[in-house]
Amino acid sequence: MINRIEVLTEIDKSIIKRFDNIVNQLITGSMTLNKERK
């Protein structure tokens, strides 16, 4: 049980990291778009 939970948390961490990267890219992309519009 403990091992399974540890593995799940490791997978969750990697998924969260990927999601954060995507969100950051979207935020920076929208910021650059806003700058270009002005």
Report on this model:
95% of the residues lie in helices and 0% in strands. The model has no long low-confidence stretch (mean pLDDT 86). With 38 residues, it is mainly α. It is rod-shaped, with a radius of gyration of 17 Å. The longest helix is centred in the middle third of the chain and has 36 residues, at 2-37. The protein has one helix and no strands.
What is this entry, summarized?
This protein has 38 residues and is mostly helical. Helices cover 95% and strands 0% of the residues.
Record the SSE blueprint.
Elements: H1 2-37
> What is the beta-strand fraction?
under 5%
Q: What is the average of the pLDDT values?
A: 86
The ordered H/E elements are: H
Major sheet details: none
- General form: rod-shaped
Q: Helicity level, as a percent range?
A: over 70%
Q: What radius of gyration results from the CA coordinates?
A: 17 Å
**Total number of strands:** 0
